[in-house]
């Protein structure tokens, strides 16, 4: 007669459950490590030492220099156009030195010389009109009215942002989902071990009753 499987050994289903739990734990830890090194640390560096301030426009000007941008006109249609460089110089409530305003961190990294990158159109004239419209907006609609801006005095004292890309919500999700993955993995492992422990105890009690 074939010998029965020992009660303390995991069944195939329990073994798969344990593997899934450990896989989720590893995925959560690796996600936290990867996001921390590749995304979260630069985001915190951009936020560290800075914060919101009140900005006032000092000057709005177009430079003679033009920059290239890439437009798309279909699945296999791409080309290059050019746009003029608009600079908006502001003074912040935390510093008397003029600073260059940017739309956000992404725009700052793409073109640190300019304050605005228009949606890239195929026609250079349309790009110029978009930049001119933005120039009139800062001159006529904003003018000398103070507005909220963001800066980092340690990393980029000469640049300020109109809005931040890395806000609290993004940072929260950066932590939340890897942490949830890790906790779900831990929960699966713990529940599997507890269920197995209870099954072994129940089997032991059953054997004692038959003795």
Q: The biggest beta sheet, please?
A: 5 strands, mixed, barrel
Identify the strand order in the major beta sheet.
1-2-3-5-4
Identify low-pLDDT runs: 1-7
- Overall structural class, as computed from helix and strand content, comes to alpha+beta
* CA-based shape: elongated
**Average pLDDT level:** 81
- Quaternary assembly: single chain
What string, H for helix and E for strand, traces the elements in order? HEEEHHEEH
Helix proportion range: 40-55%
SS strand fraction: 25-35%
Helix segment tally: 4
* Number of distinct beta strands: 5
How far apart lie the N and C ends?
A: 21 Å
Number of domains: 2
Key words describing this protein structure:
211 residues, alpha+beta, 2 domains, 5-stranded mixed beta barrel, 49% helix, disordered N terminus
Please explain how this structure is put together:
This protein is an alpha+beta fold and 211 residues long. It folds into two domains: 16-46 and 170-210; 49-164, no CATH class. It contains four helices and five strands. One of its GO terms (biological process) is detection of calcium ion. The chain crosses the membrane at residues 20-40, 170-193. Its main location: membrane. It is a multi-pass membrane protein.
